[in-house]
Amino acid sequence: MLLAKCKIFQYLLALVLLFHISIGNCQKKNNTNNFKADSLVVVSSQPVLRDDTNSFEKIESSINRKGLLTELQAELEHRKQLAIKSQDDITLARSLNDLMKIRDLRTEDTLYFRNSAFMDTILNNPGTSAALKAIIHILHAQRLSNFDHRSLRFNAAAYRTKNLKFNYAALTAKQRDSIVVKDIEAALSIHPFKGDITRLLWLSSNPDVFLFQPKFEDIVLSERINLVASRYYEYDLEKSPVGQWASLPSIKFR
Question: How many Å from the N-terminal Cα to the C-terminal Cα in the chain?
Fold first, then answer.
């Protein structure tokens, strides 16, 4: 009788151990397909997007801390492909911009303009939508402006990229500034954005300045003011429309 009870106990114990090991293996297998970065969870190749703007901010925060770059790059590539399929120009532009930031961190400093060459490809493609072009014009202006106000690790000539269509590093600062002006003006003239543009606030260098619900034009003009205030442009402000804005009535100024 005692022997029979022992055999039953051993049999039940073996089943419990087998069940426990099976669950552990399943959990281990599932965990290899997951990573977590600042509460942004990616399962296999399908992202769990709680909120588009919020999740992008978490990605960009991780990029700024140089954390989980491989995983974030894979996530952004996936978002880029989804945006192309769904024709979501805002998500596409933001994904491309964040991928550029990762390339900047992973490559040597002299590849600055090579890493942003996709902007020229988009701007010179006749099939690009007006919405995407307008966003890229702003990013392009910021990229050119930042070059003249960043610490270069090498001689300026080392940043020249002769095998690219546009060799921006070979231009003078004044020539680059003239392109920046054209970018700003192009963004204002071709954009199709109306109504709520909250998803575009990431384009602003300082979105906190808006004490009202901004329009796309407000974001663009704010960027132009930032560039002028930082003395990125080498032209006479007295002759620029920017210098006349302060004297406008508040309604026209907005």
Answer: 93
- The full DSSP string for the chain is -HHHHHHHHHHHHHHHHHHHHHHHHHHHHHHTTEEEETTEEEETTEE--S-HHHHHHHHHHHHHTT-SHHHHHHHHHHHHHHHHHHT-HHHHHHHHHHHHHHHHHHS-GGGHHHHTHHHHHHHT-TTS-HHHHHHHHHHHHHHHHHHTTS--SS-GGGG--TTSS--GGGS-HHHHHHHHHHHHHHHHHH----S--GGGGGGSS-GGG-SS---HHHHHHHHHHHHHHTT---S-GGGSGGGGGGGS-HHHH-
State if pTM tops 0.85: no
Query: Tens digits of per-residue pLDDT, 131-156?
Result: 999 999 999 999 999 998 877 778 88
One-letter amino acid identity for 208? D
Domain ranges of the chain: 34-106, 109-236
